[in-house]
Design brief:
It contains 16 helices and two strands. The two termini are 31 Å apart. The chain has a two-stranded antiparallel sheet with strand order 1-2. A hairpin with a 2-residue loop joins strand 1 and strand 2. The chain has one domain: Farnesyl Diphosphate Synthase (Orthogonal Bundle). The chain is an all-alpha fold. Helix content is 75%, strand content 1%. Helix 3 runs antiparallel to helix 4, helix 8 crosses helix 9 and helix 15 runs antiparallel to helix 16.
Length: 366
């Protein structure tokens, strides 16, 4: 059967139009803030450029799966696009804070926000520590983006019959991802006092909260909630979204070590330099001897790792069998997600779109 589904570019274009209208409103309301604040707002706006719009696409697909099951010709509304755009703004907030926490220099092939603000300080000829200014400003920038996300969400939901259920899921998403971010930071220190056998499980908990729920499951459920999903439909989408989100993040972890910098926009092996205690790292350490493990631990988190040292760590992950084990986990999570859609009371065309999205999320190079 021919499936007529929106292309990624159409979803992206619709979200971008809503973001642009929102930014026009923000700028018109900020004219009294002065030139210095304009720099701040412009930097926030720049963080919204680019990206895969994956969360918006899953939100849109969740809405379609429910709305078009009930009404074949259901049409997208401004509220739907506002919700999708609000998710993208919140994602930008998370990335600004993530890059600051990780001391990352780049994002999407451009300077990370704290580095860009550092440059603004330096080029303006201001006094004081430019790097400290960049870091402090990025904290506030992330906070501003969270506020923008809430502003757009609330304006879009005004008077909507499903506003309460959407707000509840959105609030849960914010709590989950923030807690997951903390656990990610904590694991970079806490691993040393926990048994090696528990490290993969602990890393999977971070993966669930910081990425799986936030990147896939919750955007799907948000779109479905907006469409008035019943309990069975929400359950089916959660059972699809969570394992797919796990596969998505595990693929991200692989790319963080083995990805091509010209494609990912970040240096090859960046996760190794940042000391990320991922499932890939946990499985590697569990499979090698004590002396090799000590060497790996000495290298992880070293910002000055050379290409040769990165290559050594990559080879260790391959030879230990950890990379193959993670690839097997990705494949099994993807199969689990696919099974969850069988027999679900969801629009057939949207289910096909979800399967396409699943492949795009797990079989990617960036």
């Amino acid at each position: 059967m021919l499936r007529v589904v929106p292309s990624p570019s159409l979803v992206s274009e619709s979200v971008s139009r809503h973001l642009e209208r929102f930014l026009q409103r923000i700028r018109s309301e900020a004219t009294g803030y002065g030139a210095d604040a304009a720099v701040f707002i412009d930097e926030a706006a720049r963080t919204l450029i680019g990206g895969k719009r994956l969360r918006a696409r899953f939100c849109h697909s969740g809405w379609r799966a429910v709305a078009r099951y009930a009404e074949r010709d259901a049409t997208e509304t401004g509220t739907l696009w506002d919700l999708c755009a609000a998710l993208e703004i919140f994602q930008s907030a998370a990335l600004v804070h993530d890059d600051l926490i990780d001391n990352s220099d780049t994002r999407r092939g451009r300077p990370a926000a704290h580095r860009s603000l550092e440059t603004e300080h330096r080029e303006a000829g201001w006094t004081g520590d430019a790097a400290a200014f960049g870091r402090a400003s990025a904290i506030l920038l992330g906070d501003l983006l969270v506020a923008w996300s809430d502003d757009l969400l609330e304006s879009g939901l005004a008077g909507h019959p499903q506003a309460a259920s959407v707000r509840a899921e959105y609030a849960r998403m914010r709590r989950d991802v923030t807690t997951g971010q903390f656990l990610d930071i904590a694991e970079e220190s806490a691993w040393s006092v926990n048994p090696i056998a528990t490290h993969a499980e602990r890393a999977l908990r971070v993966t669930s909260l910081k990425s799986a729920k936030y990147s896939v499951e919750q955007p799907l459920v948000l779109g479905a909630a907006l469409a008035g999903a019943d309990a069975d439909q929400v359950t089916a989408l959660r059972r699809f979204g969570h394992p797919l989100g796990m596969a998505f993040q595990l693929r991200d972890d692989v790319l963080g070590v083995f990805g091509d910098a010209s494609v990912t926009g970040k240096p090859t092996g960046d996760d190794l330099r940042e000391g990320k205690r991922t499932v890939l790292v946990a499985l590697t350490r569990d499979a090698i001897g004590a002396s090799a493990r000590n060497l790996v631990d000495e290298m992880l988190g070293d910002r000055s790792l050379t290409e040769q040292q990165v290559s050594f760590l990559q080879a260790t992950m391959v030879e230990s069998g950890a990379l193959d084990r993670v690839e097997a986990m990705i494949a099994e999570f993807a199969r689990e997600a696919d099974r969850a859609l069988s027999g679900a009371h969801l629009d057939n065309s949207a289910v096909g779109e979800l399967r396409d999205l699943a492949r795009a999320a797990t079989e990617r190079s960036a």
